[in-house]
Specification:
The chain has a seven-stranded antiparallel β-sheet. Helix content is 31%, strand content 21%. By secondary structure, the protein is α+β, with helices and mostly antiparallel strands. It is built from 17 helices and 18 strands. Helix 10 packs antiparallel against helix 11. It binds flavin-adenine dinucleotide. Flavin-adenine dinucleotide binds next to strand 3, helix 7 and strand 10.
């Protein structure tokens, strides 16, 4: 007899209780034929795969590292770490897609079956089926997750990527909740990708609080985990701007949730993480009259010896000047990202503001002069540019992202939120700079492709005093989100990968010392953080766990270091 024991005792293919093919067919019939067996994206290129197909392979090779067409396949993740598993996988070499990375094509960490969701009833049916057969569920949108939380082997996957409806209401009436009625509300199906949202809302004269890269799914893990981008400094996190969600809970019921209806679930899904509390189908969010985007771009190579980042005076002095300016920039809502590498810098200051760019010029004038006076830089770009709207600016950021973070490779992150107090004294600024420089040097000693992003897109104008959002409270006094990034294109030996992971964890120690009781943005963090409840969720964890236990008591949804995670060996 197969008992529905909950996800902790779930079973996998080949086991006695795994559903028979006729049971899968019955599920398929109840969901209008939306059930599929998973086929890895590169299967057509593997001669020993039943899906080998030269023409289809050619198409996949052409867009292997291009995240938007890549994301139209269920059988992939953005980062190969999570699509593959040890020496099992079915991937191509991103830098030369005619080369296979594995001997045979296997599912790796991809689920066995997936439901390509067309409407909420498909999700309800999938959840009921999984419950009845005691199999695990996973939820996926784009597969961008840095912890691989959207791709779990031996699961029935719910794929929300094709829920791509999008709408705008200038006068929105919330469901049974007059206090949530609002002007200018956007509605995103769970699968809408960033570029479509920016273009749609800009065509309505509006901005949405999205991110930096065009293929992230805004309503999935991004906004349920916080959601950070160029508008965060001005309008808050995307989760801060949530108005109402449509969701399917673990029991298969469909709900419209907001501040009045199931408020604890609504709060938990405003920053407490995707894949944890319920399956979201629609995200309704405050949008704002569109602003021009003003930027200051400065890119340069260091001309001196760059073999040891810790000895690079220019790197250290620019980082220090950056930190010294931060309090003032954040006060003026100047935002952006500055990337530091052992051999170069790429500065991008951004201000969404309704002027001709003069506010950004004034705010950055002293820093620009400091950069221009340096004799140890070989400058390749140094300009102020204004864009009429965010969609125009996106062409620049997405081209940049394609170079710095292409899909179809392996990656690791290590990050920390740095509080305002650190920027208020020269001594702590020095410690911060030292910690970041040491990280830049250490990461490069382990991998050839590394860089450190300092993101100042923090919600300084939304302190969330009433705790409407469940994003880590540390966000509210954060000025820098420091992210050390490492990438590689071919699988590493297990031991090498473990060494890289450990080194990336260790470089956070000086930053942790500067931010006791603080945290990291779990959508862009190190996946092995030991004290993960505090680091990813802070003081919100107990309340989030209560919501988890109330809405998902049998842990239908369980993901890596998500609220209520049952552990590595479950
Ligand atoms: C290239 C790149 C650029 C990025 N840029 C930014 C940025 O500018 N700002 C920022 O804040 N973050 C950024 N991120 C991080 C991003 O927020 C996370 O990767 C996020 O998890 C992506 O969400 P997704 O739904 O697209 O991905 P997925 O991997 O599909 O899902 C992520 C998580 O959400 C869950 N989930 C997905 N859909 C649903 C649903 N419908 N209901 C319930 N749970 C769901 C999954 O189970 C998983 O746990 C970036 C990531 C990448 C790879």
């Amino acid at each position: 007899m197969c008992l529905a024991l909950g996800a902790s005792a779930a079973i996998g293919p080949g086991q006695k209780c795994w559903p028979s093919s006729s049971e899968w067919q019955q599920l398929n019939a109840t969901i209008d034929g939306h059930l599929y067996e998973t086929v890895p994206i590169a299967a057509p290129c593997y001669k020993n795969s039943p899906h080998y197909d030269e023409v289809a392979c050619q198409a996949v090779e052409n867009y292997y590292g291009d995240s938007i067409p890549r994301g139209t396949h269920y059988g992939q993740t953005y980062w190969l770490n999570w699509e593959t598993c040890g020496d099992a996988g079915c991937a191509l070499l991103e830098t030369d897609p005619s080369e296979l990375l594995y001997g045979t094509c296997t599912l790796g960490r991809l689920s066995s079956y997936y439901v390509d969701v067309g409407d909420a009833s498909h999700i309800s049916a999938a959840l009921k089926f999984a419950h009845a057969h005691n199999i695990r569920i996973s939820i996926k949108n784009t597969g961008h997750d840095f912890f691989g939380r959207s791709s779990v082997p031996n699961t029935l996957a719910i794929w929300t990527h094709n829920l791509d409806s999008i709408a705008f209401s200038s006068n929105f009436t919330a469901h049974n909740c007059p206090l949530a009625n609002s002007q200018n509300v956007g509605e995103l199906g769970a699968g809408v990708i960033a570029t479509d949202a920016y273009h749609f809302f800009n065509s309505e004269g509006m901005d949405i609080t999205g991110g930096y890269e065009e293929s992230v799914g805004l309503a999935g893990g991004f906004a349920q985990g916080g959601g950070v981008g160029s508008f965060t400094t001005t309008h808050g996190l995307m989760a801060d701007n949530a108005i109402e969600f449509e969701v399917v809970t673990a029991d298969g019921e469909v709900h419209t949730i907001n501040q009045c209806n199931e408020p604890e679930l609504f709060w938990a899904m405003r920053g407490g993480g995707g894949g944890t509390f319920a399956v979201l189908t629609k995200y309704r969010v405050q949008v704002y009259p569109s602003l021009p985007i003003h930027t200051y771009t400065f890119t340069a190579n260091f001309t001196g010896d760059t073999s040891d980042a810790t000895q690079n005076v220019a790197l250290r002095e620019i980082l220090t000047a950056h930190a010294e300016n931060q309090v003032d920039w954040s006060a003026q809502l100047v935002t952006g990202q500055i990337e530091y590498f052992p051999e170069r810098i790429a500065i991008s200051l951004v201000l969404p503001y309704g002027d001709n760019g003069s506010k950004l010029r004034a705010a950055s004038a002293a820093f620009a002069e400091f950069l221009n006076n340096r004799t140890d830089l070989s400058v390749s770009a140094n300009n102020y540019t204004s864009y009429s709207d965010y969609a125009s600016y996106l062409t620049v950021t997405s081209a940049n992202a394609k170079v710095t973070e292409p899909s179809g490779i392996f990656s690791i992150l290590a990050s920390r939120l740095i509080p305002r107090t650190v920027f208020e004294a020269p001594e702590t600024i020095d410690e911060l700079v030292e910690g970041v420089v040491q990280g830049i040097a250490t990461t490069r000693s382990h991998l050839n492709l590394t860089g450190t992003q300092i993101v100042s897109e923090t919600p300084v104008s939304n302190l969330d005093k009433n705790q409407m959002s469940s994003a880590h409270p540390a966000w509210r006094n954060t000025l820098w989100h420091v992210i050390h990034v490492g990438e590689w294109v071919e699988p590493l030996e297990a031991e090498d990968q473990a060494n890289v992971a450990e080194a990336f964890l260790q470089i956070l120690e000086p930053l942790k010392k500067l931010s006791p009781g603080g945290g990291a943005y779990f959508n862009e963090a190190h996946y092995l953080e030991p004290d993960w409840e505090q680091t990813y969720f802070g003081s919100n964890y107990p309340r989030l766990l209560e919501a988890k236990n109330k809405y998902d008591p049998t842990h239908m949804f369980d993901c890596w270091k998500c609220v209520g995670w049952r552990g590595e060996h479950e």
